[in-house]
Every structure is written in C-alpha cells, then in structure tokens.
Amino acid sequence: MSSIQMVDLQSQYTKIKTEIDGAIQEVIDQTGFINGPQVKKFAAELSEYTGASFVIPCANGTDALQIAMMALDFKQGQEVIVPAFTYVATVEVIALLGLKPIFIDVDPDTFQLDINQLEEIISPNTVGIVPVHLYGQCSEMESILSIAKKHGLKVIEDTAQAIGSKYSFSNGKSAQAGTMGDIGTTSFFPSKNLGCFGDGGAIFTNDATLAEKIQTIANHGQKQKYIHETIGVNSRLDTLQASILSVKLKYLDTYSEARQKVAASYDEAFGNVPQIQTPKRVLNSTHVFHQYTLKVKDSLRDNLKQYLQALGIPSMVYYPIPVHLQKAYQQFAYAEGDFPISERLCEEVISLPIHTEMKEEDQAYIIQSVLKFFKDGK
Length: 378
Ligand SMILES: *Cc1c(COP(=O)(O)O)cnc(C)c1O
What we know:
single chain, alpha/beta, Aspartate Aminotransferase, domain 2, Aspartate Aminotransferase, domain 1, 7-stranded mixed sheet, 3-stranded antiparallel sheet, 12 helices, 15% strand, binds pyridoxal-5'-phosphate, pyridoxal phosphate, Pleiotropic regulatory protein, PyrdxlP-dep_Trfase
C-alpha cells in the first residue's frame, strides 16, 4: 500500500500534468512573470465561477485579509470581531494594523462563529466582523449580515477554506462563500481546495469603488505608475501561479465532489460510534470539506492520533490552541475560560485525511483503523 497522506497533491497533478505543464511553459515562453495576461484571465474566470463582480488576485490569503481591512479604512484602535477558533492569519492582520481583535466563541457543532453571542460584543468602537468559513462550509451569513447591517458594520468573509461552498438565504437566493459580505478573501496555498504551486490569494467584492481601492492598495497605492495616492503594499499573484490556477479552476467542482464523497463515507462509517461526533452541517450551506473534522470525546483524541500514526495514517489537529490563548496575543488580555467552546474543541478535534485522490482501499483502511481503536477500547 502506498503511504497515506493528508493531502495527495502529487496524484492530483499527475492527472492534469499535460495541461499544467503546457500552461507553465507558455508563461515561461512569454516571460510575462509579473502581471502577465494569465493573471487577468484567471481573475475573470474566478469572477465568473464565484459570481463576485470583482476579483483582485494577490500574493496570499493573509495579504488578502490585510488589504481588505485597509480598503475598508479600519482605523487604529477600532474593533474587529473574529472567532477565537481559527487559523492565526485572520487575527494577525487585525493586530498588525493596530486594530483590536474582539474574539467570539464558536458553535460546538458547526465550528462557525456563534451568532447568538454576536450582538452582545458589539461596541460603539466596532467596525467589522470577520466570519471564517471554517473547514469548508459557510458561517451563518444571513444572521451575520443582518446584525452587521443593523449596527453599520463591515463584513469580511475569510474564505480560505471554503471556496466553492454555497449559502442559501431564506428568500430563496443563494451565493458563494466570499461573495456575500463587503469583501471576501481566499488563499491558493497548495493544500487549499483550489491550490497553486506556491503562494497565492484573491479578494472578492461586488462594489466597484472598493474594488478599485483594493487594486490600488495591492499595487503600492498607485493607479498610475509612480503616482502614489495611498500607502499600499506589494501583493501580486505570480503569472505562473495564475496559469496553474486557470487549469485547476476547471476541476474545482469535481474536486469538491470527490471530497464530499470521502466525507460521506466517513460519516456513514462513524455515525454510530458513541465516542465520536461526525461534522455537523450548517443548515443553509453546502460543505466542500477542506477538512473532515471529528470531535473525539472522553479525552481520547491524542490516543487516537498516536494509534493512527503507528498504523501509518496521518491526522492533524486544526487547531491545538485557540488564538486568544496564544502567547503573541496576550496583549489583548484574554484568559483561559473566556471562550470555553473553542478551548474544548482544541482538545477534541481531529482532522482525517481528505483530498481529491483518495483511494477506496486507503479510506477503508483509515475507517477500519479508527473503528478498531474504539472497539478495542484504545
Ligand atoms: C490558509 C488560511 C489563511 C491564510 O492564507 P495564506 O495564503 O496561507 O496566507 C487565512 N485564513 C484561513 C482560515 C486559512 O485557512
């Protein structure tokens, strides 16, 4: 048996090697490495795919978040609400811009920010909310958007893990992750659902004025070369990466389906194991399974992880420490016990291998091994 990986990028590449290699070679032949025509082409394709009116490519998903907050004119000292249970990048840019992260706990079943706690933490100093569509499904956007509107707050959707996921509103309309708030951000880090061969990111908006601002900030604050209107950053998507992403975007729906199939098999296999909880779905969202994340009860998570590792099965803990308890964020004076759900999830969650090239026999082996762990009484 070939070794099982969390994400198998090699096999994925092999299947589309001719197309990818051709796209890369074309960029090399043209030597348009920076802002070559493939960047605009990919942006247009992604706009078509997501339904976002404007797509501005940038260097990575972290930059995308930072540029979004700069474009919305968030000022030093103002407050931005962000889940305590997320990847650090979301909070990092808030702190870097001199803003104040106001953490919020998450729903214990869906892992998305808990909308029931949202209104009580909004202050006159709050300017924005950053829902993180964690693991591949949308946060409860209808409630988030309506609360944001009521309080005059901006919404930036961190869509790094959920590209292609769809949310349905009660009026029957639906929209893709990243296209519902004022701005959406995403990442093309290789292991993300739409991954390139290095770093990459993009920013979505439906607002033409904001789009122009975002574009300007991402390009050193200039619209015209050497005329700087605002302080910006240098954040570009490489032409090579854009050419790769154009190829992979065509397969994104197929990739999502492959992930959903793996998830469905896990769900079925683990549904009746009392010590584990399979991932619950947000009612109005589809799930593209960036991660398949179980909750393990009775403090058995670490034992399970070791057990699987000994059998050659990798697993990951996203995330072992909630951001409010990270050393780097002590200045914001949060303490243990402030966000009990996030803290407990850090002890209970485990993500199993899921990717677009999962072999049935590999998944069967993973499933058998997990079941055996619980049956044998660890
Ligand atoms: C990956 C990720 C990011 C950062 O993306 P990079 O491209 O690595 O900078 C931000 N937020 C979340 C939730 C992520 O998973």
